[in-house]
Amino acid sequence: MNFILLGLLVILIVAGVFFAQRISQKHREEALLNRKIRTYTLLINELWDVIIAVPNYIMAPDILEALLEQHKRLIHKRDSLNPQPDAQKLLEEADEFLSKAAAIPTKDRLESDSEINLCKKTFAKASKVLRAAASRKEISPQIAVNMRNSMRLKLLHMEVDTYVAKGIAAGQNNDPMTAATFYKYAKKLLIESDLKFEGKVEKVREISDMTRALFGGITKTELDKGMEKEEETNDQGFPTDMNAEKKKF
User: CB-based contacts of 166: which residues, under 8 Å, 6+ apart?
Assistant: First the structure.
């Protein structure tokens, strides 16, 4: 009898351990699934923030359409793990956004360094999404490059126009040295950019003419010396090291 009871006890212990392991495994699988869903939700929300920001800086339906397709892809991927109650609403918003985006005013100039940085981050994130889509063969690699270059070119134009406008404002406030520093930085952006576009050389010359107009008869050597001194004590909110290498996205 004792052997029978002992055998039953062993069976119960083994069964308990087995069920405990099964329950633990199930909990681990559920936890992993929930982490994947949360990750997809985070990516969906981050990409949506990029999508709604892009039209503020560039009106490019092809770029928006490509980003929206990636947004919908993430929604479907998340839904394949476990259907989510907000999926249909998100898909409808994505389908409607492209037509609504046409009414969003697109900036030609940025008002501050913080706004320039925000634009850079938006374009960098969009570029990363397009590059990943191209690596998965979901869009043509050349098309992805063209889209990314479109954003780079628009950013270059906006940065240059922003610093030229700052230079004009400084000149109007009788501060020619600060104005010349802004003009120099705007010209540097153009010269060091590998992007080619019609009117680039003329734009550089125009900025040079604006700089010369500030100082009348001051010689180039005197102007350069004055600008170097200004750059050492510059507090304008953009890099004082004009030789710093610009990052691309």
Answer: 182, 236
